[in-house]
Amino acid sequence: MNGNPSREISLVGLPERTKGEVEIARPPLLPSHITLSSISRIVFSILSTPMGKWWKWTISITSSLAVVSFLTMVYVISTGIGVWGNQSPVVWGWPIVDFVFWIGIGHAGTLISAILLLSRQKWRNAVNRAAEASAIFAVASGAIFPTIHIGRQWMGWYLFPVPWSAGIWQNLRAALMWDVFAVLTYLTVSLLYWYLGMIPDFATLREKEKNPFKKRLWAILSLGWLGSASQWIHYEMGYLCLAGILTPLVLSVHSFVSCDFASTILPGWHATIFPPYFGVGAIFGGFAMILVLLIPSRALIPKLKELILDEHINQMGKWLLATGSMVGYVYLIELFTAWYSANPYERYAFLNRIKGPYFWAFWSMLFCNSIAPQFLWIKSIRGNPLSLFFVALLANVGMWLERFVIIIISLHRDFLPSSWRIYVPTIIDVLLYVGSIGLFLTLFLLFLRFLPSVAMFEVKTLVHPPLKHKNIPLFSSGEEHKMQEELALASNFSTLSGQKDDSMTPEKGKDLYGIGAEFSSPELLCRAAEKLKLLGFRQFELYSPYPFHELSEVGTLKKSWVSRIVLLGGIVGFFLALILVSTISLPRPSLLKPMLSSSLLSLFYPLVVQGKPYFSLPTFIPIFFELTALFASFGAFFGILFCGGLFKFYHPLFSWKRYNDRGMDDGFFLVVKKTDPLFSSNLYSMLFRLGASGVDPITEY
C-alpha cells in the first residue's frame, strides 16, 4: 500500500519454555493477526471514535456524583466537621476509613506496574497503563478526606516546614507527618512515572493525528520524542530506576499509614504486623480494582479485547487468589497473636469483632477477602470474566470493610464501659464516600476517552521476536566474508563536492542533514548498522517505534548517564533531609550566633517529645527515605529529558516524509549524518545493498 513494505511478523507472544524434553507453550499475549501498525491503529481508533451512548450516560452519572461530593465538601468546610458521625470514643470515623481505603487502592496500581516491570512479566504490558492511572485517580479521591479532616483548611500550610511564619517546626517524629511526606512523595513520583510512560505513545499519536489542534497538543506532550536508539537507552534506564524507586516507596508509604495505628497502645491497633498487613491488603485491593475497571471496559470497548486478552485477566485472577490467601493468613495470625498475648484487653477487642454489635462487618470482611477468592482455584470461574468481576467486586467491598473493622470496631468500645457507644454515619459521610467513587470513575472514564489506555510501545515489544540467542552470531560466515570485501569501499568514498548523485541532492536553498534509510524489519536494521560500524561509520542513528535489546548493542551509544543522575539526586535528597531534621532537633549552636542573623538562628528549634533525645534517628528514617526517593525520582525524570535531548520540538527528521508517516508506528530507520567522516555519495547505493527499502536525503530546515 503506497509502496510501503509489509510489517507482518509471524511470532507473537512469548517463547516456549521447556521442562526436560517436554515443551510447555506459554499462552499468547496477542492475537496472531496483530501487527505493529494494527496496535497503533487500535489505540488511535479508540481515541478518535465516539464512545457511544453508554459513555455519555455513565460519565453523566459519575460526574454528578463528583459534583455532589464537591458540594458536600463545601458544606462540611463551611459548617464544621461536627456534621460527621464522629463522636467520642469513635473520633476517627468514615473519613479515615475512606482515606485508608483509597490510599491502598492507589498504592497498589503503581506497585503492580513497577514490580511486574522489574520481574520482566510481559503480560503487564497491556494492563500497566490502566493500573497506573487508577493509582493516581485513587490517591486524588483519597486526598479529599484528610484535607477536610484537618479542619481550618486555610491553615493547611502549617503542615509544611515554613518556620518563619508558623513560629514553630512540625513534629517530624509523628506518624501523621510521615503520612504527609509519604503521600505527597508517592503522588509526585507516580505522576512522573505515568507521564514518562506515555511520552512515546504521545509521539505515535502525533504521527497519526490529522486534526491540527490535536496534532500540536500531542507534539507538545511528546516533548519532541523521536524514538532514536540513544533515547531508548536513556529512557529504559530512567524508567527502570523509577520502577526500582517506586517499589520500596509504595511499600513504605502504606507502612507509614499503618504506623498511624500501630504506634498507639490501643487494643486492636498496637500490632507490629500492621505494615506488611496493610501492604498485602493494598496489593489485593489494587488487583481487584483493576479487574473491576478493565472487565467492563473490555465489554464496552470491544477493540480493547484485541490487546487485553482473557489471558491478562486470568493472570490478574491468579494474583488476586494469591494475595487474597495472604490476607486470610494475616487475619489468622492477628487472631492467634491476640489469643497468645494473654492480654485481656487485646482478647476482648477481637472477641468484640467476632461477636459484638458489628459482627456482620467482620464476617462479611472475612468472606469477601479470604473465602470468595478461594473459588478462583477453579479454572472455569477464574477464566469467566463475569464471575471474576463478581469476586473482584467483593474484594473491593471487603477491603473497605477491613478498614471499617480496624478503625470503627477498635474505637467504639474503649477501656471505660461507660463511654461505649454505637457509631452511626450521617448522610454527609455517605455522600462524601459515594462522591469520591464518582470522582474516581469520572477520572477513569476521561482517561479512557482522551489518553492512550494501552501502552502501545510496550505492547509492540511482544510482536518483536528475539533477533539472536546466545552463542549464535548475528551474521553467518559467508556474510562476514562479504563484509571484508565491503571494507575496501570505505577507502574509495568521495565527498559530496566530488562525485554527485542527483537523487541525493537536497532541495534548493536547504542544507543537507544526512541520508535516511528505511528498513522493513528490525533484523535488517540491526544488520545494516552492524555493517556500517565495521566499515568505520560512527555518526549515525537508529530509530525504532519500540525498544529492544539489539538496538542498544548495534547503536553508537553504549552507556547511559541517567543512573548517575539518579544517584546524584538521591544524595541531594538525603542531605536535604539531614539538614531538615538536624535544624529542628539540635539546640542553637552558640558558636554560630555571631555569624548568623536572627532569622537563620530561628531555624534551630529543638522539640522535646516525651523525653526522647533531640536527634532521634529511628523516627527520622521515614523523612530520610521519602526525600531521598523524591529527589532520586526527579533525577530519573529530568535525566531522561536532558540526556535524551527532549524539549526540542523541531528536528530535521520531522521534514522526512517516510519518518513522519511511520516513524513511531511500524517503521525502522537509519540516518547517517553528514558530519560522519565517511559520508559520501556512494552511501546512497550502499544502503540499498544493505537491505534498505527506501533511501532519501534529509534537509536541515
From TrEMBL:
UniProt similarity note: Belongs to the NrfD family.
PANTHER family: POLYSULPHIDE REDUCTASE NRFD (PTHR43044:SF2), PTHR43044
Organism placement in taxonomy: Bacteria, Pseudomonadati, Verrucomicrobiota, Methylacidiphilae, Methylacidiphilales
InterPro entries hit by this protein: ActD, NrfD-like
Membrane topology note: Multi-pass membrane protein
Protein name as annotated: Polysulfide reductase
Regions that span the bilayer: 59-84, 99-118, 130-155, 175-196, 277-295, 316-340, 360-378, 390-411, 431-451, 565-585, 620-647
This protein's record includes keyword Cell membrane: yes
